[in-house]
Amino acid sequence: MKLLLDSTRCQGYGLCQEPAPELIDLDEWGYAQVRATEVPPGAEDAAEAAVAACPNSALRLVK
Hints:
This protein is of the alpha+beta class. It contains one helix and four strands. The protein has one helix at about 45-55; strands at about 1-5, 25, 30-35, 60. Strands 1-4 form a two-stranded antiparallel sheet.
């Protein structure tokens, strides 16, 4: 499973990092940065929660 970010849709709310701090960092302005596109085993639920938390659909999962 891959976690992909469309940085043009990110508005810097930072809501995606709360459920998945091990997968997503925020830059100094609050914009998301995916640490690694491959979601490690056991982090699938956190990745799905991060995608669901994004109000602008900037994140998506590809299986």
